[in-house]
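Ticket #4471: structure output looks truncated?

Reporter: J.K.
Steps to reproduce: submitted the chain below (353 residues) through the standard prediction queue, then opened the result file.
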Amino acid sequence: MSRFLQLHLLTFFPPANMNRDDTGRPKTAVVGGATRLRLSSQALKRAWRESPVFSTALVGHMGQRTQRLGEVVLAHLRAAQMPNAVAIDTARAIATVFGKVKDIKDPNPARTEQLAFISPEERQAALTMADQALAGGKIDPKPADLLRRADTAADIALFGRMLADNPSYNRDAAAQVAHAITTHKVTVEDDYYTAVDDLKTPAEDAGAGFLGEAAFGSGVFYLYLCIDQSLLIRNLGGDAPLATTALTALVEAAATAAPRGKQNSFAAHGRAGYVLAERGGQQPRTLAGAFARPVTGNDLMASSIDELTKFRAAIDKAYGPAADATIDMKVGGERTLADILAFVAEDVSCPAT
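Returned output as attached by the reporter:
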């Protein structure tokens, strides 16, 4: 099995504001002296995890990022008629393994201060310990009792986690995801809009009931992912078939799912116009350098594909091939996303060497 799978995608999005900064405007980055639209890796990963293709393929193998596991335990104890004060103390004791719990005087004393990425096995272990307490047993929650270094949570295996109080149970992410940037210069524009009060009478003023502005931008985005397949399998406890399912679901989501910001206003549901997949044991490398000089022209997708192809050939000539096998797909060409997914699944299914 090749160790690394590298993915390069070019996706056109129409006017949208899928990933906002603190002022509500689309996120940007200056690259090659030109302003580009940007989609953060965090926003992308969130969109992929929540996409139907990912969540459906991995049902039962998804973690939960939450502060509220203690509240789940507390509800379980209360439903079994444990006295409230005892239930709160028990839930807090169990939740402490996953993070620092809030003060006992807090309105939500069983919540943790931090978000924790919790696997299905860990959630079940917490509830099992709660059942021990319900049966009259004395509990003394320890990390080794509740936390796992490997499990079947595919999203944790892919994207990793950090537990500040129990770092030995951190999980290194098998997938590295770059911020997506437009291949060309952009100008963020503003939409001035109004809303009409349906009950306003003709005798009143002719003004709108509400005035507002919304920023947006459009362009062809370059996205790069690198997945360490060997680490993915280790994170999943050696379950290669589950790793295959996780990886193909990730690839399909990356090609078809977009961040949800302002989608009701813009419906910017794009699909990758070009996908390049590479696999091998060589040191990974991004091809973002193809767009250090902004792409220009009337057909930005075609120009972006051309620049990407030329840069890849040049860098591989200088350094040697960065992959043992490759496949690409272009909308309007002969190959399909199904061919990309078959290429990915074929490799992960092979025994690791």
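Triage note (M.O.): checked the attachment and the full token line is present. The chain has two domains: 4-58+173-186+218-348, 65-152.
Status: closed, working as intended.
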